[in-house]
## 1
Amino acid sequence: RLIISVDGTTQDTYKQYRVGGNLDKVLEGAKNIVKWKKELKSKTPFVFFQFLVVKHTEHQVEEIKRLAKEIGVDEVSF
């Protein structure tokens, strides 16, 4: 399993919890993992997006679901 913490769907929200983090870099990495997983016809790693739901992110729940589906991750955990 690979758990990727995506605690915000915008850079402003993401950086509140991941100080110094770069959301675009994280999402690009997730896309690469999913791409190679498909290309290698591998079932592993099982890729999770972990999303912290707090006052500042609760309005982004639907957006993270959409983003996870678009990228092709296996599951979103809240």
## 2
Amino acid sequence: GPTLPSAMHRCEVSLGVDRVCGRWGFGSALMNRALAWARSETSLRFVDLKVFGHNEPARALYQRCGFRETGRIEEAFVMQDGTVIDDIVMLLSLSRPKSAP
């Protein structure tokens, strides 16, 4: 997560499942565990993530978990073969009240 005190109300999740194991529920299990942890941390208000633009199964999983797309980083990656990959930025609000200053 962030290191600045003013950003400590956010965390970032990153996970990956080998394609061979896709569609077996591992991604859902990992995300559910990560979100359970995030919800147990009362200081957190948001969970951020980035996902490859072409990874439709992962994007669908994140949307089912309540994440919404907030932006796109065009040409975030240029592979050796010339393939260009965008990164999609997604956000989940944990719906907690703001702390008083």
## 3
Amino acid sequence: MSPQNEVQVTATIYHAVEGQTDSTPDLTATMFKIDLTNPIRHKIIAVSRDLEAIGFKMNQKVLVEGAGDLSGVWTIRDRMNKRFTKRIDFLVNTTRKGGKWENVKISLIN
């Protein structure tokens, strides 16, 4: 597939806890060490694997639009389960419960 600079996705949230990650919730797919007391400070998103295939690669910065107070610049440092497509997950603190946005636009930042 050829790279794309912009795509519409569904966005959800996740927490750095076993059950929503793997047995090492303090590490992302890129082996980035998460501050478990305040994970949102890192501004990390996980992307579905189909997005990686079209150019949204690990450690790239993306602009997220249409996700309310989570809109802004985030860094891709994690990967979602293979069952998901056209989707991103925001890493947030466990105090935030729930969140889903449709038709969110993500764009690569050069």
